[in-house]
Design brief:
Elements: H1 2-22, H2 29-36, H3 40-52, E1 56-58, E2 65-67, H4 70-80, H5 83-99, E3 102-108, E4 113-120, E5 135-137, H6 142-148, H7 153-161, H8 175-188, E6 191-194, E7 201-209, E8 215-224, H9 225-228, H10 231-251, H11 256-259
Antiparallel strand pairs: 1-2, 3-4, 3-8, 4-5, 6-7, 7-8
């Protein structure tokens, strides 16, 4: 009984953190209690515990809660132990230099989103915003499609049957259309994004495989549509992305047989 109650408390605390991360940034005790389905006193007790650990903090002016600084330390620790990120740094720089575009490396986070674990800036001038830690619905970005295309069919079906996010009018939310895109990605070895996460932005990404031959993440370029998706640029960039993804996969231990499933 005690163990069950402890597990339930941990689950509720985790839900509070997720709510603040996705629905926040500021939520009151009443809001959080309603969202996780507990009484206000229970929510308050959970928040006090999380606050004592630095995982949330209370804003004095509003008395509402926000995520705390300890989460940043945990996030940094996760990135430091993320093998794909550590192995991809040099390859991402190579790809950024070769294409002249920004490079993102991502992993599937909760089977619904991809998490950007490395971001190599585009070479050259201009203001650029670091997107490290960004969480993006899988169906709205090339990175997500590149990974999902090489998952087992049962997992693909679950994802296609689940909630499909719409971030722009270009986001593809039709399961049949997405299934066709995944099949094509398997055939050509890269996935495309055309203004599906942000208007004016595009992406080209290829999967990265681990030593077991499973997709461990993806690497790709992001940038303006006019620089990525014209016929000539798309082909040139796609070749570069696939080649770097292949080399990164081999560094992670993937055999030559994995490469491949990627062919022209």
């Amino acid at each position: 009984m005690w163990v069950r109650m402890t597990v339930q408390s941990v689950q509720r605390a985790a839900r509070i953190l997720r709510e603040l991360a996705t629905s926040g940034p500021r939520l009151g005790v009443t809001d959080l209690a309603e969202r996780i389905g507990v009484s206000k006193p229970t929510a308050h007790a959970l928040l006090r515990t999380l606050e004592a650990e630095g995982l949330v903090r209370q804003e004095k002016e509003t008395s509402k809660y926000l995520l705390g600084p300890a989460l940043l330390r945990l996030g940094n620790s996760y990135l430091e132990t993320q093998e794909l990120r550590s192995r991809s740094v040099a390859w991402a720089d190579t790809l950024a230099e070769r294409t002249g575009e920004a490079v993102w490396v991502a992993v599937l986070d909760d089977r619904r989103h991809v998490l950007v674990v490395h971001h190599a800036f585009r070479h050259g001038s201009g203001v650029q915003i670091l997107e490290l830690g960004a969480s993006i619905p899988w169906n709205t970005c090339a990175l997500g499609k590149a990974v999902v295309a090489f998952l087992p069919q049962s997992e693909q079906k679950d994802l296609l049957a689940g909630e499909l996010a719409r971030l722009t009018g270009q986001s593809v939310v039709d399961p049949t259309a997405l299934a066709e895109q995944l099949a094509r990605t398997q055939l050509i070895g890269y996935a495309l994004e055309d203004q599906e996460s942000a208007l004016g932005e595009a992406g080209i990404a290829s999967p990265v495989f681990d030593r077991h031959g499973d997709p461990t993440g993806a690497i790709g370029i992001v940038g303006p549509v006019e620089r990525l998706l014209t016929d000539a640029d798309q082909q040139r960039h796609a070749v570069a992305v696939r080649e770097v993804a292949t080399q990164l996969s081999r560094e992670l231990g993937a055999g030559r047989g994995v490469a491949w499933r990627i062919s022209d």
